[in-house]
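Hello Y.,

Per our agreement to keep a running log of every chain we model this quarter, I'm adding this entry. I've kept the format consistent with earlier entries: sequence first, then predicted structure.
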Amino acid sequence: MRRSEEHGNDTDRGDEAAEWDVWAKQFPIGTNVEGEVLDVWQVGAHIQLDFGPQALLLNSEMRWEGFVPDARVILHKGQRVTFRSSRSSRGGNGISVSLRRA
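Predicted structure for the entry above:
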């Protein structure tokens, strides 16, 4: 019995992996993507990308000219912004984006 079946969760990890592979092909690293800021805190923001997954934007990827000490100065919840995908991790389903490279 699969672990997901043991816990009554019918989510199939194979389907998630397949979705991740589709995403990686459609939006390779370096692709500009659009999304909405879900939450902002001092060191970064969570972004809901238009095509499904969420991403992390850290202060170091916000602008070229100097470090941003507080992300809340540049971004606000609900703001729509264009980003560039900068890193993805299928294992952890993590996506990092860059505002300064977009």
